[in-house]
Each structure stands twice: as structure tokens, then as C-alpha cells.
Amino acid sequence: MDKAGWYTEEWADQGSAISLRVKDKVHDERSPYQHIEIYETETFGTLMTLDGLVMVTDRDNFVYHEMMSHPALFTHQAPRRVLIIGGGDCGTLREVLKHDEVEHVDQVELDERVTRVAERFFPELCAANDDPRAHLHFQDGIRWVADAEPGSYDIIIVDSTDPIGPAAGLFGQAFYADCHRALRADGIIVGQSESPLFHASLIKAMHEALRGANFLDVATVHFPQCTYPSGWWSATMARKDATLAGFREQACHERAFATRYYNAGIHQAAFACPEFLFKTLL
């Protein structure tokens, strides 16, 4: 936070930045893994940053958490067992557990302090942490997947930070191969894949790594995220032994829970690939 009361995250390689006017910094700690800071902003509510990068705000987190969960869950025909890698703020966990057919969720987050800080400052995101179907584990997600029994999960959600430091291994072919083994025959993996405008080469590398790990079908979904670099974000999804067709549209229309961004129209539109990215992925 500068002297004028602004939090600024610079995207130096893109010659741009985002700034949020801050009322106060309310928490500051260094966990064994990263620097965790909490701010109260004037217009975006509570803000969490990790190592100086925006992770979550009250105002716009719903878009990310809904798009990291519901497209995969409404594509799979019977999502009963789900694994979340990362997701320490627990917003994705909350969305997954809105699906009554889900019977068991393992969330594997490396840094327990992120979750404990989220429980204090983002209690609404952690509202499902005590759900009996939720099982929180604080350890290395890469190792968890490597040790998983074959066919353990219907869906794996990789809700990771940027592909640097400990998270870098969550974007590689070896990790995806372990996920392929840990998924059931019709299983789906989805992982956050950064900005199509700023990070198209990363998305291309993810597609290649997923196909290299023998996933049959790969696609990227798009959504706005105004506090992330460029304001345009994505998640890349792959299916083990089938295509990503088969959206359960009627189930989506008849869902028993409310959403703020995701719906059937958004689901279908989000898979449209911009021409520049289509050419990049060729």
C-alpha cells in the first residue's frame, strides 16, 4: 500500500498494472511458504494477496469460483468424488458442495495458513468447510495425486496460484499423467490457465501437456476477472476417455442452488475460442 492509500499490482512484463484504493491493512504474516496480506478496500471489500499478487476479493471472487467448478460438474454425468488441488480460500470447495450428487471432496492445499486466514476474513467462502463431505488436507498436492489409487476421482480441480515456485509442477505433463491415472474412465480435470490475452503460450503448453498425458479432449473456458492480469481469465479442461460434449443443460436449468455468474448460456458461450487463441493452439 503506497502513501496515497492504493494497493497496486504491477504486471511489469505487460507494461500495465491494477490499483485498488485501500482503507486499511488488517493482516500481515509470512507463512512457511509465502507472504499473506489482507486489506480492506473502498470498493472491492476484503482483499487477500499472496506474495504481493491479488488472490481474492469480496467483489469479484464469485466469477472465478463458479467457473472453476460448475462447468466441469455439469459436464460430468455423475460427479461423486472430487479432488481440489490448492483452493486454500475454499470458495471453489463451497461451489462444488452445492451439488447434492457430490459425495466426497478432498481439498489438498499446501499452505494451511491461507485457509485459516480465509476462515477469519472470508467466512462466506469457508461456509462449507464443516460439511461432512469435505475433507481438508494440508500437504503437497503433487504428491497426493502421485500416491492416489487409480480411478479415485470423477473430477480433479487444480485451483492453483500462478505457475511459479511450488505451483509450477501443477502445469506439467508428469502431473497430468498422474491425474489421468487417478481419474475414473469418464473423469475430468480442470485447472486455472491464466489470461488468454497475456499468457496464450501457457495455455498452448497446457493443451500439449494434457494431450501428452493421454487426455482425449481438451478445451479452454473463458470468463472475466477484473482484478487478475488483463481482466480476462481462463480455465482449461480435459476429459480422460471421452469428449467434453454432453453438457447436462436441463440439470443446470433445474439446479437447486443459486449462482451469480454461471448459467446454461454462460456454460455454452465460455467454450467459444477467440480466433487468435485458436490459431495459437493449432
From TrEMBL:
Keywords from the UniProt entry: Polyamine biosynthesis, Spermidine biosynthesis, Transferase
Active site, renumbered: D159 (proton acceptor)
Record pathway: Amine and polyamine biosynthesis; spermidine biosynthesis; spermidine from putrescine: step 1/1
A Gene Ontology term for the protein's cellular component: cytosol
GO molecular function, one term: spermidine synthase activity
UniProt EC number: 2.5.1.16
Example GO biological process: spermidine biosynthetic process
Binding, S-methyl-5'-thioadenosine: Q34, E109, D140, G141, P166
Annotated Pfam families: Spermine_synt_N, Spermine_synth
SUPFAM superfamilies, per the entry: S-adenosyl-L-methionine-dependent methyltransferases
Gene3D superfamilies on file: Spermidine synthase, tetramerisation domain, Vaccinia Virus protein VP39
Domain PABS: 4-240
The UniProt record lists the keyword Transport: no
PROSITE patterns registered for this protein in UniProt: PABS_1 (PS01330), PABS_2 (PS51006)
Catalyses which reaction(s): S-adenosyl 3-(methylsulfanyl)propylamine + putrescine = S-methyl-5'-thioadenosine + spermidine + H(+)
Record text on subunit structure and interactions: Homodimer or homotetramer.
Physiological role: Catalyzes the irreversible transfer of a propylamine group from the amino donor S-adenosylmethioninamine (decarboxy-AdoMet) to putrescine (1,4-diaminobutane) to yield spermidine.
Protein family: Belongs to the spermidine/spermine synthase family.
Full protein name: Polyamine aminopropyltransferase
Organism: Acidiferrobacter thiooxydans
